[in-house]
Amino acid sequence: MDELNTTVIFLIGLLVSAIIIYIVTKLFGESKGIISAIVTALIGTIVYTAAYYLIETGWIAAIVAGIVWLIALGSFYKMGFLKSLIVAFVIWIFATIIGVFLPTVTGPL
Prior knowledge:
4 helices; mainly alpha
């Protein structure tokens, strides 16, 4: 039953994270759809999980994963590093506020 709970919470968190990414990227004029936002949220989760597993140090892992996710975000949405940084910061703000009420996935959100 714990595995089912974990899976459901992960899927809800992934959807919430994807919606946040979708809204923020739309605010910045990006044209990709919700599927792209879901993939981006999943990439963020994979990057952060791998960084924490491989590096095992909180701040260093977070910085490395954050930079890798910024590069992935920029590549996926075809935006420069500065715009990716601003978009990621706005996503983080939204996720922090919404995360009080709803789950989000592990990662940049």
